[in-house]
Each structure stands twice: as C-alpha cells, then as structure tokens.
Amino acid sequence: MQQKPVKKVVILGGGTAGWISASLLVKILGKVLDISLVESDDIGIVGVGEATIPPIQSLNAALGLQEEDFLRETMGSIKLGIQFEHWGAVGDSYMHAFGTVGKDFPFCHFNHFWRRSEQLGMGYGYWDFSLNYQASLQNKFSKLDRIEGVNLGGLTYAYHFDAGLYARFLRKYSESVGVKRIEGKVASVQQNPQSGDIEALVLASGERIEGDLFLDCSGLHSLLIDKTLNTGFEDWSHWLPADSAVAVPSARTEPIVPYTRSIAHANGWQWRIPLQHRTGNGFVYSSKYCTDEEAKQLLLSNLDSEALAEPRVIKFRTGRRLQQWQRNVVSIGLSSGFLEPLESTSIHLIQSGVLRLLKFFPHLGINDADRAEYNRQSKTEFEQIRDFIILHYKLNRRQDSKFWRDCQNMAVPDSLQRKMQLFAQSGLVCREQDELFSEIAWQQVMIGQGLIPADHHPLVDALSEAQLQDMLQNLKVIFAKTTERLGSHQQFLAHVAKNA
C-alpha cells in the first residue's frame, strides 16, 4: 500500500514544547513543509521548566539565536550546576556541577586519583577540582572555553529562564519564518475510519485543520496521543513516588547565583531558580505522604523573598508513553511522559524528541521501521534519565520521615543496580552509548550522597604518594586562581542588559 507523503505538519499546543518544535521544524524543513501550530490563549501552560542543561546551547545555536538577545528576552541567568542540599543526610550538601572534574586521564577517570588521595588522608575534596563548583561558590561567571596555558576545560554552562518568555521568543521567531499560528480550542478530533490515523482537528469555531503528521504538544492533557489514540502508559511511580508539585514565583533576590538549588525536606524537595526579574520556586512531593495544603505552607515558609502569586498545584504521573510515536502522531514534551524536574531534563527531552523526529522524518510517508526505531530510542533515553533521577532518592540517608526511608528501601531497576554496584566496588561508571548524563555526572551524585568506591584503578599506583600530592595540589591551585580571575555573574548579566 502506497504511503502518503508528509507535507503538512500540525502542532497542537504552544508553550515551550510547541514552539521549540515549530522553530526546529521550520528552520530545518521549512522549505518543504507547511507547518501550523494550534493553540488557545485561554489554555494555560505548565510553564515552570525554568532550568536547563548544557545541550540547550546547541538548540539555540541551531536556530541562530544570539545569546545576549536570548538572555534579555527571557530574563535569563547562567546555570553552572545544581546544588543538592540535605539529600544525603540532613545537613549534607554537594553539587552536580557541569563540565569536567580534575584532569582527564587515559584508561581511568580523575575520581580514581582523588579516591587514592582520600585513602592516604590528603584532605582534598572532590569538588576542589571542579571549576564550575568553585565559580558557583563565589557567584562568578565569564565565558571561558579553556583554561589558558594548560590542557584543561573552562566553564560549561546552561541557563535559567522564564519558560513563558522563551515560548514567546520562539513564537516570534517561528512566525517570522513561516509557521502559521491558529488561535482556537479543539472541539473534536477526526480519524480515518480505516487506518485510525488522525485526519483533522476541528476547532470550536468550526474550522477544520487538516494534516499529514500531528505533533501532540498538549502537555499533561495529551489530547492526541492519549485521549484520541489511547496509547498505553508505563507507570514508574513505584520508583519515583512524587505525584504533585506546588509552584510559586517570588521577588528577585541578590546576588543572582549561577546555579539551581534543590533542597530536600521531610517529604519531598524544593527547587529555587534565580532569574533576572524574579525567582522560580516549587516543592515536589507525594500526596501519599504530604497533603497539598501542607506542601503549600512548607513552600511559602521556605521562600527567601516575597511570594508574587498564589501557589499553584500541579498533578502528574511519572512514566512514559509506551509508544511516543503512534500512527501519525508524535508526542513531544509532557504528552510523551513525565520525569520530575530534579535534573532539569524537561526542556532537553523536548529538544531531543524533535531532533529525533527530524532524523527519522517520514517525508515519503510514515513507515513502521522509522517509527519503531524512534520509539526504541525514545524509550532508552527516558529510562536512562529515569535511572539517574532514581539514584538521588535511593542513595538518601535521611531518617526523619517514612518518605525517605521508603525510598532507601525500594528495589531499583536492574540497569541502575548494575551501575551502583560497579561504582561501589571499583569506582567505574560505564556510560551507555548516547546516554545524556556523563560519567562525571554519575560520579558526583554517587560520591555526593555517600557511595564511595572500595577500590581505585591500578594506574593510580604508578604515582608515588609525593607525585600524587604534587599533581593534586597543582590542579587545585590552577582552579583556584582561574576562579579568582573570573568576573562576577552579576557583572555578566549587567553587561547583557546594557547591550540592549
């Protein structure tokens, strides 16, 4: 049976997912596709995805967005990592800092050298060798690709920004290069009676929007992939029990720190994301252990500035669609699944979902092989990120609530159990091909939450104790002096604003 060529793409839903999808599609395939986006001003968006990870830079670069324009338009700030507070035991703190730690060595990672120094009682902290962490502590930031004079990386960074303003920024770009925005609410969805494919969206106005391929960017509502096509859902709440979040903006505070804070409380965790004009705050929790009212009160009592609105409760279910591409519908963003924002992966999953679609784009017609491989890769990506998030909960050592004790005692996926056992015994992290989080990211969470390897790589023993001490001291001095020379994050943001 001859497939129908895909010439007309309809995106349902605006927000971050819809407008990232529209921007990338029109940038790459705008000359051969007719792209429309349907959204209603009357339907709100979740809009709390305000922290990102470094691949956001490649997205902005692909779209040709200038960094200073982007930061001004979105009230953005710099993010060098995520500070985790009270996640090990109460009072503990560590950072998942972006970029490298120490120095790269062939055959073994720097953490083996640090582990040997710890066994010898040298007194070095693992994060003494993270430039991103040292800069974060001092609220420093300057654009620095490499440390001059030595073969060491500079600062790796992402952004905090207002998700609503980012969507508006991308909408302006998309419409300027050919995306047609259609205002309206969907009243019904028309399917082909034989194939089950979606043929058109019928709006409340009576307008009929036909398409060959539909992108479901309708968020948690999942109108097309779930409500229409009844695509199954794999529930992961037995590993990630949080099913609720309460969010509220608060007044801007100074200094605007260049990192996200994730602060564990008795029955969940609080995010704090500093923007130029305000601070984004939220509390993630499980309704099994905490009521909505208790969550609101906890969040409001732990703000460091005045709340600017009433707290808003968001309900969710952690897991993923069994098929993120079903028939002629591709789910992008929250419609494809939900992973809590602990490691700021929501916007990245939008980005990777659209890029994957571009790689497998069915211009001659949708075929089973492309769709199956898209779904396989999407499943793998979701599961790898899922394991990284579970790791934080599993490794907690808190004894102050049933919530945290239950997380300690839960069985985890075999894929995660293997990673934890390998690291505990030998200090090794084996990163799967195309896995989002690096070996260094895994090392930081495991070390930060108390999973310390029993052994180190034998290559380290080629250095004498004096040679190891000399190498580590020199590295520590390099990172300390480089940090001193950086400008302040506040100065960087002031420069961005000044160049408007």
Walkthrough of the structure:
The chain has 15 helices and 23 strands. By secondary structure, it is α+β, with helices and mostly antiparallel strands. The strands form six sheets. A seven-stranded mixed β-sheet has the order 5-4-16-17-18-15-19. A six-stranded mixed β-sheet has the order 9-2-1-13-22-21. A three-stranded antiparallel β-sheet has the order 10-11-12, with no helix packed on it. Strand 16 and strand 17 form a beta hairpin. The longest helix is centred in the C-terminal third of the chain and has 27 residues, at 368-394. The model has no long low-confidence stretch (mean pLDDT 95).
Strand ordering within the main sheet: 5-4-16-17-18-15-19
Q: How many DSSP E strands?
A: 23
What is the arithmetic mean of pLDDT?
Answer: 95
Uncertain ranges = none
Strand content: 15-25%
Distance between the termini: 56 Å
Kindly name the structural category: alpha+beta
Report the helical percentage. 25-40%
Form type? globular
Calculate Rg over CA atoms.
24 Å
Main beta sheet, described?
7 strands, mixed
Number of helices: 15
